[in-house]
Amino acid sequence: MEDPEKREIPRPAQLTPMMRQYLEQKELHPDSILFFRLGDFYEMFFEDAVLASELLEITLTSRDKGENPVPMCGVPHHSSRGYVAKLIEKGYKVAICEQVEEPGPGKTIVKREISQVVTPGLVTDTEMISAKEPRYLFALHEGKGGVGYAFLDITTGEFFAGQLADMRALLEELGRVEPHELIISEEEAREKKQLFPPSLPVTPVSADFFHPERSAERLREHYGVADLGGFGLDGKPLAVAAAGALLCYVKSRHRSALSGLRPIASHLGSDFVFLGDATKRNLELFYTLSGERGQGTLLHLLDRTRTPMGGRLLRRWLAFPLMDLAKIEERLSAVAEFVQRGELRKNLRETLRKVSDLERLAGKVAIGSANARDLVALRESLGSVPELRELLRGADAPLLQDALNDLDPLTGLAKLLTDSLADSPPPSLTEGAIIREGYDSAVDELREVQRGGRGWIARLQSAERERTGISSLRIGFNKVFGYYIEISRARLDKVPEGYERRQTLANAERYVTPELKEMESKVLGAEERANALEYGIFLKIREETGRHVEKMRRTSGAVALLDTLSSLADLAVARRYVRPHLHEGYELSITGGRHPVVEALSGTERFVPNDLLFDGEQNRLSVITGPNMSGKSTILRQTALIALMAQMGSFVPAEAARVGLVDRIFTRVGASDDLARGRSTFMVEMMESAAILHNATGRSLVILDEIGRGTSTFDGLSIAWAVAEYIHKKGSRTLFATHYHELTDLARTLPGVANFNVAVKQWQGKIVFLRRLVEGGASRSYGIEVAKLAGLPEEVVKRAKEVLENLETGELDETGRPRIAASELLAQAHGKRQLDLFSGAEDAKKKRLLEEIDSLVVEEMTPMEALLRLDEFQKKARDILRGKKG
Fold this sequence. Notes:
By secondary structure, the protein is an alpha/beta fold. Helices cover 44% and strands 17% of the residues. Strand 7 and strand 8 (146-153) form a beta hairpin.
């Protein structure tokens, strides 16, 4: 994203009053693109015009064609929303400068003020943003004792604040919240900007925004409290500083939006399962590995919600799985009741279709931006609440009973909105037609005047046609000239006396008469008075609606809860999911587990389920071997997804599942780089592995899919072995998929390590992937067979088999080296020695064997132990003598 301030356009020596006004407004928000209202357009000038014309793909023109012409472009005010949205999505800010007075006689320039600054994290127009995604503005502040953070969604009023131990933990939380804009002090921005994703807009602000005492005072003043203890912020000065900075930022950009904020909720990371960026990415929770939304993600599969707020709540549950067993069981019990009561589920979901986004409608009412259409949507949504209440009577699950108690039909408000507002009001509040006929007698009288005047004008048109003999004569109206009589040029000879010319067109003349001007005055006067009266009535209705915002939000929360729970139940019935059994222990056992997304995308192909067990004794670390494409990655990921789904309160894709609560889910999967930050594939792999080793606990679930593949064979194997040993000491429940068959030896030396492989069958010279996890290590990798399936040339496949055979049998050429560099005939023709890719391998194995023997404490061994170790050493010695690899 390019900074518009970096483009310097020369200013003309002489500026008009309007251009001076423009530059004065621009100085107030130099980091924003200024939309400057001129009549029916928003205009941009100088650097903003050049930048906006490129971003919006609109024509760049110029004003004042002198020595230094002023670049200029503009967009119609009635369609500006789409242009603003486009700039916001690209990470820019837009300052909206409106005319705050009407032009009048003697005025050289009207007064203009910036009404709001739209930023990526501060969008109040809900039509510009995704309905089922939150829009978070995030602030962070590092200081002594940790890092404070706060985030809010101005469209719903949600406001959270918390404090973490260090920046690493904060960055993980930032990745989970996925804000659209980050607020940070200028000094911290210079130090830390490289830590944040390049796609995240970062807005540096003055350090005064984060001043602890001033921040606390801002918050106390805004909420009208003596102290912040009621918000759970005692002893969290850095969290207070971040929350106060957000308040200050919103006030400086869109002051009226502050009225929609809810009380701050303390945000405790320990309440939720820890999910890092790598885990979210590798499990494809919200985006596929290619960065796409929608199909292929777990969210897309889970989301059967009917309402926007239900969709947002489901997303939050997925991002923040619970650690509280009682709360998880509450959710599961409610889902179970919807699963068992199919008729209730069906009827409730049909009723939910009629409910609009109550949460964001309440937000619009709170900040005073709701129009008549918004209140009509609110009215219709409230009309569905009695149906929902009736359906829930007799529900047993505690969460469903809570939802029933929170569902408030707001009968009085619904009646007011029904009686007062028209069925289909226009979006504008100043052009009339928003108040229902019969609600206000004064409005009805003025409308009757308008109708009578229009009827009189229609009768006048017929009379004038007959009097003049001009059948094409017509009476029309426009906002500039008012009512007029239009006669084509071909009939001008028949224009009677008394017609006063008002406007000349290419093919016609327009006239007025004294009678027409008198009626125009009556009609237009009545229309203006009616419109103004309707607007005033609407403001009173909106003000009354605002008194019910908290009840609306409770009702919205109940609707969102019902929507999310019934959505999960509907999915469970459709996909044959089962209720998991959660407990506080270590055991994680899955019978007939399936990958939810892969299964759904398999079509007619049958998905092969698999069993898995962590019991803390025989199975703590499972080493899984097998060829590519056999399904190792699917089994690993489905285990993590089943645990995650269970703790978010969902049924799971399995025949049965017992899940000991998981505190953190870590994944290290696949190969990726971060070239923008100078990180190679192997560096990224090692950084992700380091994060796992430092932060995993005995209650964590760790998924490792290939470690050490980005470096040399011996380096990679050594790292993989050491990583496995380290994570084994931690006690984490770990699935470790690898092509290093040597890692199967861990089962011989470490208790709780078990070997598994994904079964493969050879049939008629081909391999068949059985997708079944079985005990024991794989005997080979079948990499050449997979390469053949991928379409490698037959010559390459044949030669690869020859090399593999030479390596496995230890076949040597006349120089004593393996025949692997080229074919035997080519080597003889050129008399070149073959290169040994694995030179030194046997020496290394001999050395390891000798070291193992040397480390034995024979006098402490029982006779049986000594015999077993001797048998083990003998097998290794035979392998070395036979020249076997591995």
